[in-house]
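Researcher: I need the complex structure. Ligand is iron/sulfur cluster. Inputs:
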Amino acid sequence: MKLEDEIAELKEHLEIQKKLKNPGLLRAPETETGPLPEAPGKASAAGLESIRSALGDCTRCKLSSTRNRLVFGAGSPDAELMFVGEGPGADEDRQGIPFVGRAGQLLTRIIAAMGKTRNEVYIANIIKCRPPGNRNPENDEITACFPFLEQQIEVIRPRVVCALGKFAAQTMLGSDTPISRLRGRAHPFGDDCWLVPTFHPAYLLRNPAKKRETWDDIQLIMKLLNWEKPATNN
Ligand code: SF4
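Model: Output:
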């Protein structure tokens, strides 16, 4: 099936979801932070600052006792494309910036291969504090933290969210389907947004043969965004 046909079919599916009053993942979050900041038109830096301010020196889950730095997110508040990973690692925990370790450097190269810089996209994680020993986040931690990422998405209003790795993809889609079956296509995600899962850069460092499939996913994202096709696969 052609990409255009697949997109048309997915849009139709999204319309049916709307008619069934299925708000999808991006429901209006009711958290202790109160209502979303107003975001007239496209996203505003003020909206993100308001969410960051509401988080404060967050102690809403047990990860607060082991983290060094809370990693809120970084990039353009007007980004058309958001990358969402699992959670901060050791380098990110030290610097308070997402994706700055070896995996982050690979993500930076992927973004450069799209003809963009990190300042033109937005990068965040499902949870904002590093789990000890880089273990998987636990349910109570996701429950406490995920609403803030949802608010960031609501404010930024990206056209595409790229979920990096199994954990981010499964959490955002509410699915336990393996990443190998979730990736390779665009999933309707809220209003006027697509979610494209792909492999996590850390996984690519261990399995470089998977870069080819990741590059296919990146090209799909570029088609969805009408970004100019890159000349080479870096
Ligand atoms: S992981 Fe999220 S909810 Fe838990 S302490 Fe950090 S910012 Fe707060």
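Model: Summary of the prediction. The two ends are 27 Å apart (CA to CA).
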